[in-house]
Design goal:
This protein has 107 residues and is α+β, with helices and mostly antiparallel strands. It has a single domain, classed as Aspartate Aminotransferase, domain 1 (Alpha-Beta Complex), CATH 3.90.1150. The protein has a four-stranded antiparallel sheet with strand order 1-2-4-3, with helices on one face. Strand 1 and strand 2 form a beta hairpin. Helix 2 runs parallel beside helix 4. The longest helix is centred in the first third of the chain and has 16 residues.
Length: 107
């Protein structure tokens, strides 16, 4: 039961295959804009933003203004630095909005 509870698919009604496909699409969208998406098994993506762009705190603030709630990953550990954010994988329409975040916040 512990292994199942630690799985990112625990409690999901859309099934692990659909969830992973949705996660992969979102990761690809974000990588297209130069964000590095680190692999993992959790139900969120850990992303490293380009060092020559805005930091995590600024990106999170700009996203919040668009009703997208990413998290500054600096609180997850000091080794992540100021350009790491955590993005939860959501439903399809929300993921599409999150996937266009880099383009939208650059405006």
């Amino acid at each position: 039961m512990v292994e199942k509870a630690c799985s990112s698919d625990f409690g999901r009604t859309d099934g692990p295959g659909i969830f992973r496909a949705t996660e992969a699409r979102l990761a690809t969208d974000l990588e297209h804009f130069g964000w590095k998406v680190l692999p993992g098994i959790a139900n969120f993506l850990l992303c490293l933003l380009p060092e020559n762009g805005p930091g995590a705190a600024e990106v999170v603030g700009r996203c919040r203004a668009r009703n997208l709630y990413h998290r500054d990953a600096a609180v997850m550990g000091s080794q992540l630095g100021t350009h790491a954010i955590r993005i939860a994988v959501k439903d399809g329409p929300t993921n599409q909005r999150m996937g266009s975040t880099p383009r939208d916040i650059a405006r």
